[in-house]
Amino acid sequence: MADVDSGSGKADRRRRDRDSDSDEGARKERRREGRRDDRPSKHSSRRRDDYDSDGQDSGRRRERRDRHRSSPWHERKHSQRSRSRERSHHERRSRSPPPKRRRRSVTPSQSPEPHKRSKAPLPSQDESFRGEVAPTDGSAPPPQKQKPNYKPTGLLAKEANTVAGTTTVLKYHEPPEARKPPAKQQWRMYVFKEKDLLDTIYLSTRSAWLMGRDEKVTDYLLEHPSTSKQHAVIQFRHRTSTDEFGDKTSKVKPYLIDLESANGTKLNGEKVKASRYVELVDGDVVGFGDSEREYVMMLPPAGT
Description:
Helices cover 27% and strands 19% of the residues. By secondary structure, the protein is α+β, with helices and mostly antiparallel strands. The protein is rod-shaped.
């Protein structure tokens, strides 16, 4: 009996130990689950004061959310996200790669030189026009510009300067300053052949004397075959001169001009340049072509 009782007692103790172990394990399991429930998860890290009792957002959370959305950092991030979305959308639509921009290579010879600003004073327009300003770079001075001349050239009159009844065109036209000498200046020209006086020409009766072989147009006929048809002209011109004291004097003086003759015109034994006026004075000797005749200019005293 005693063995039976002892065996049943052992079985009862084992049963109680098993029950106690299971109860202890259940308690440990419950404690473990309770800790897991109390531990905050990474997805539910929200503050308790952000929600009301019914689970809706509180005013503090809404205020913080509105302040975050209105911050410039949020707007910048939002614009960056929108640009990245548009870029990715464009890249998805266009399958071809974007074109590569070629960089233009500039050689040293083609590279523009920097503009050098001069610190020198600017010359006036009047001085630069006259050529009085010396160049600053050390080069030769610019050539002097020719001033405009608005006086009549006589080209139109030369084209229409024909003698009535003939087709001969005169090679000479009187200038605007042509004048007849005054009565007190009785200019004369004496024609000599060696020592013989052949003729006397009263020059003061006309303002110009055309000398040549063409008897239809000339004022004085030259008979030597070496002279031209329109050889030379003796022209009286009104000229104004200024002396060393600044006083101006006006006189009518005789001038000699060669009309580009074949054998030229001589003054005191020397040939004169063609188409240029040469002043004549009392006692000058003029020769035309190869003629041996001498034409002497004389200005007799007043009253003779």
